[in-house]
Amino acid sequence: MQIRSSTQDGFGEPVFSIVMVTFARDHLVPQTIAQAARVAGDRLPEVEFILVDNNVDDIDRSSFLAPFLRWKYVKLGFNKGVSARNDGANAALGTFMVFVDDDAFLNPEGVLDRYEQAFAGNPNAAIVTARHIDHATGDTPRASFPHTDKSLPKDRPFKTFRFQGNGFALRRSVFEAVGPMSEDFFYGLEEIDYAYRVVDAGYEIYYEPACWVVEHNDPGGRKPRKDVEEMRLTNKLIISFKYLPAIYLPLNFLMFSAYVFYLNRGRINVFRSFGNFLKWARAHGDRRKPLGRPAIAYIERCGGAVWK
User: Based on the structure, what is the number of domains in the chain?
Assistant: First the structure.
């Protein structure tokens, strides 16, 4: 791993670190970075931008960072998947870290003020999660809404127990206390794993739709949908095994497997996903640490069902 940084003098510690992991999207990344700089507005001197490069090549992409006064460029040299967010977080100095995907446009102008206000109004919130808006439809996809009750209003803030892995802000102090995001997952549902750890540590999560990202779902670097859905199912089984009380496991395993199978019209191999889960469980059975009663009570106060 190599880290390069800008050499600007005269700055104090940043208030915000914006972290972006990139892979196979050079056609879009300069635009998403420029948009982040634009919406930072007059707070640009208080922001550092950290680009984590997952591309397997020797290209130096630090020139993409020109819109920012200070930046860090983290070149991994291999594709680490979503867990590369940890490398960006480890390099961050900001009080708050905002994670934005490389095909997503952060909005609106002044968005950093809104994140900061949400944290100030919710002092026990570890994470402020933004609204996702699909570029093609202009709406928030069901899967991108950070609650299991999909009937809740998409345009109103609320406390929750889930967050989306794109456009979320995290207190750096919480990252240091709770630890890094899981390295178990290359892609898919990794934010559910971290959300369980955050709420089990006694923190809250806050949905603030006044902050939003417009997501393009760019195909660059993506695996075929069948592979992605099988990976997501395996990940969900792992997460449930790690955190859910035993009484909820059979129903969770059955219902989520059936749900994913139905959504994909039978085109995924549920047995392969389950086999991959069993392989993980045999090697990591000691990682099971079910949620405590305070975390379960918090989820229920937020209107959630623990078995989901």
Answer: 2
